[in-house]
Design a protein that fits this description.
The complex is a heterodimer of chains A (about 375) and B (about 375). Chain A is α/β, with parallel strands linked by helices and about 375 residues long. Chain A folds into two domains: about 240 residues, no CATH class; about 100 residues, abc type-2 transporter like fold (3-Layer(aba) Sandwich), CATH 3.40.1710. In chain A, about 65% of the residues lie in helices and about 10% in strands. Chain A has 14 helices and five strands. In chain A, helix 2 runs parallel beside helix 9, helix 7 runs parallel beside helix 10 and helix 7 packs antiparallel against helix 13. The longest helix of chain A has about 30 residues. Chain A starts with a helix and ends with a helix. Chain B is α/β, with parallel strands linked by helices and about 375 residues long. Chain B folds into two domains: about 240 residues, no CATH class; about 100 residues, abc type-2 transporter like fold. In chain B, helix 3 links the parallel strand 1 and strand 2. In chain B, about 50% of the residues are buried. Classes of the chains: A alpha/beta (about 375), B alpha/beta (about 375). Strand 5 of chain A pairs parallel with strand 4 of chain B.
């Protein structure tokens, strides 16, 4: 045991010294969490505001202007231009100058005065399905408001339909059901919290694999791996010593990222911090494991980096860090269970935002630890084979 | 020109020897495109919702049915856990709680209140779910005559252009194409350049009769060609999986692609020149072309949402313009008129990156 420790210490010292000389790498590793996190935390915002609305008013009456006014009272629509012919609006939509346009027909006012239903056409650029859906929702709401407040018109009230009450008794006016949404964990609906937690996990994991593969393959490239093989140290000790500086660095990255998000974005930490750190440690090991594994299968640093580059985006995209896993197609949802980052993201969000119960988190933690152990054993086995 | 071609041939011979590199350069973008187009979606579908029906009457069950009929929600069992606990465990993303006396209150004319607890850790989805629930609730009230029918006077006839089925795959597929074509050519360019410095073979370039501009161009030529191959492959994949259509006027797309690839490769080479080591260059590409383009180019979220203070950054990313051109050509099928500005911007970016490269190499000497 003593000998093991001594050998480990000696090798680890060597690694630390090597790393210390490579100051560029250390700065590269420690700087991104702060800068990237802050930029993306501010920049990522899926909210849909200020949709550019074009209007083709063929009616040109008091009623049509009233209708337009009531639709554009809210902040969601900006009337960019009023057209006289629908073709002009179509061209503007084609040229991306508009997100949607309304076409109010010539008989708009006449229909309203007669108490008929007036049809208004809306054309939405639906290339971005999400925005289009939200725009539809806004329009529906605005129209509802308009329809319920329109007072200038003679409206024929239809009698309330008979309800479930027995016909013999005069039915009291039935009460409308009301649904009250309550937003748990994030009542202010701060969008950044979701992305900050996701990006934090991505940065940590990706950097772990990148650094580990770079460090491991470098020995191979410069030929110093022979010297390592000659030492009395065993493979496991070598691997441990090789990865411990990277591990420490990654934990530092994670802590810096957490502090940044708490200070800059007010991210709440509602759960147990030790769980966060434990999950981070497992994920760092898993990331390093992936890196070392890649390093052992590739011949040059170029190949290793390329492989890492291939593996990392897959891991990022499948993890649910940027877009919820529930929205993915079935096949990708199943595939995401193989992704260690998925578990890290779940735990980090669980700890910071939700204070999730232990019973919900431990399966994730176990999966993460399992990944770490598996990846490490594979890389140790491959390392020994060399 | 002959010198440039000779340099390109040399690069090609080097590249050909690395089997893994060839395999990855061709195969990776296709797999990643499928992932990037398939996994990213902000549309709500089949969201698991927990149900707590404390009334258990015909009316409350019809109320639940209304939710079940919507494509947005998928009901899941609450497994006997309290709503807060079940939400914290992530079993569902929302919990619908129907109080006791729901039916009686409705008939008495006292509007019963149903509570919907929404997990708002993803606030975008949470807002969407809240709106959806309000809409479903409204239609329930209508159907069961619990609320007076609206004095509907104006009706909207909605037309969704370019993507009538509101399929987000189309949107993310086209964005994904842009992502692939910036990542890999930039990476290859960065690696090839940094390698020269690492191996010390850069001195051969210095010693040759090549000028800096020729050297940069010759090196880039091969990677632009590889990028074009990747483009055609990805486009083929896109026609199969993401409903890409070949635009009536494909020239815009082709010109933009070539400019975009140039921008990508020159950007990568710039990083390679600046850092001189492969691992640092990779880090740079990872940050500069992968993360920044993924998040700021409008692939995921509208650029208009980015705060003005950092929005200028989006306009320095070639991906921002290219994604626009791809969506214009492939989805909207509009020609040069709409895409002219983005193509111009791409030209400017490509040539500025090239110019920086030439500046870096102008001395053809070791850095002092």
């Amino acid at each position: 045991m003593n000998a093991f420790f001594r050998r480990y210490l000696a090798l680890a010292t060597k690694e630390v010294q090597q790393l210390r000389r490579n100051r560029g790498l250390v700065i590269q590793l420690l700087l991104p969490p702060t800068i990237v996190l802050v930029i993306f935390g501010f920049a990522l915002n899926p909210k849909v505001r200020n949709l550019r609305l074009g209007i083709v008013d063929e009616s040109l009456t008091y009623e049509s202007r009233d209708f337009i006014n009531s639709l554009t009272e809210n902040v969601n629509f900006n009337v960019t231009e009023v057209y006289t012919r629908p073709e002009e609006a179509e061209a503007a939509l084609n040229n991306l100058n508009l997100d949607l346009f309304l076409d109010i027909p010539t008989d708009f006012a006449r229909s309203l005065r007669r108490g008929e239903t007036a049809d208004v056409q809306v054309v939405i650029d639906a290339v971005d399905a999400n925005t289009a859906q939200i725009a539809q929702g806004y329009l529906g709401k605005a129209l509802e408001d308009y329809n319920s407040s329109a007072s200038i018109l003679p409206v024929a009230y239809s009698a309330p339909r008979p309800t479930l009450n027995r016909a013999a008794h005069p039915a009291p006016p039935p009460g409308a059901v009301d649904v009250r949404p309550a937003y748990l964990y994030n009542p202010g609906l701060v969008t950044t919290w979701y992305y900050v937690t996701g990006i934090m996990s991505i940065i940590m994991f990706i950097n772990a694999s990148l650094v580990a593969s770079a460090l491991a393959v470098k020995e191979k490239e410069t030929g110093t791996i022979e010297q390592l093989m000659m030492t009395p140290a065993q493979t496991s000790e070598m691997l441990l010593a090789k990865t411990s500086p990277a591990f420490v660095l990654m934990m530092a990255v994670l802590v810096i990222a957490l502090i940044t998000s708490v200070v800059v974005f007010g991210l709440p930490v509602r759960g147990a911090l030790w769980l966060f750190l434990l999950a981070g440690a497992c994920a760092a090991l898993a990331g390093i494991g992936i890196g070392v594994m890649i390093a052992t299968v590739s011949k040059s640093q170029q190949q290793a980096q390329l492989l890492t580059f291939f593996v990392n985006p897959c891991i990022t995209l499948l993890s649910g860090a940027t877009s919820p896993i529930d929205n993915m197609p079935e096949f990708f949802q199943k595939l995401s269970y193989l992704d260690p980052l998925r578990y890290l993201v779940t735990i980090i969000r669980g700890v910071t935002l939700k204070s999730a119960p232990w019973s919900a988190l431990w399966p994730n933690l176990a999966a993460l630890a399992g990944c770490a152990i598996l990846l490490f054993s594979i890389s140790a086995w491959r390392f020994r084979k060399q | 020109m002959k010198k440039v071609l000779a340099q390109a041939m040399k690069e090609f011979r080097l590249f050909r020897r690395d089997r893994l590199l060839i395999f990855l350069a061709v195969f990776m973008p296709v797999v990643l495109l499928l992932l990037a187009g398939g996994t990213q979606s902000l549309r709500l579908r089949n969201v698991p919702i927990l149900v707590y029906d404390f009334d258990n009457t015909p009316l409350s069950r019809s109320y639940l049915e209304t939710y079940g009929a919507a494509l947005t929600f998928r009901m899941v069992s609450n497994e006997g856990q309290s709503p807060e606990r079940a939400l914290a465990s992530g079993i569902g993303r929302a919990a619908l709680i129907i109080p006791q006396n729901f039916e009686r209150d409705a008939h008495r004319g006292v509007g019963p209140t149903v509570q919907l607890l929404i997990d708002a850790s993803d606030s975008n989805s949470a807002t969407g779910l809240g709106n959806m629930a309000a809409a479903i609730n409204g239609s329930f009230d209508q159907r069961y005559g619990l609320a007076p029918p609206p004095k509907q006077t104006v009706r909207l006839q909605q037309r969704l252009w370019f993507n009538p089925g509101l399929v987000s795959r189309i949107y993310f597929g086209t964005g994904g194409l842009g992502m692939m074509l910036i990542i890999f050519p930039a990476l290859l360019g960065a690696l090839a350049t940094a390698k020269e410095y690492e191996m010390g073979t850069i001195i051969q370039a210095y010693a040759s009769s090549l000028t800096g501009a020729q050297w940069v161009l010759g090196k880039a030529l091969l990677y632009i060609a590889i990028g074009l191959v990747e483009f055609f492959l990805c486009f083929a994949v896109g026609t199969i999986f993401f409903n890409f259509h070949i635009p009536t006027d494909p020239t815009v797309l082709l010109v933009a692609t070539i400019l975009y690839l140039m921008a990508g490769v020159f950007f990568g080479m710039m990083l390679g020149n600046a850092t001189g080591t492969q691992s640092a260059a990779i880090q740079g590409v990872q940050m500069g072309s992968f993360l920044l383009s993924l998040l700021l180019s409008g692939y995921l979220f509208a650029i208009a949402n980015i705060p003005v203070q950092i929005r200028w950054f989006s306009y320095l990313l070639p991906a921002t313009f290219y994604v626009q051109v791809v969506r214009n050509s492939v989805l909207r099928n509009v020609g040069w008129g709409t895409s002219l500005l983005p193509v111009l911007a791409l030209t400017v970016l490509a040539f500025s990156f090239y110019f920086i490269n030439v500046l870096q190499m102008r001395k053809m000497q070791f850095k002092a």
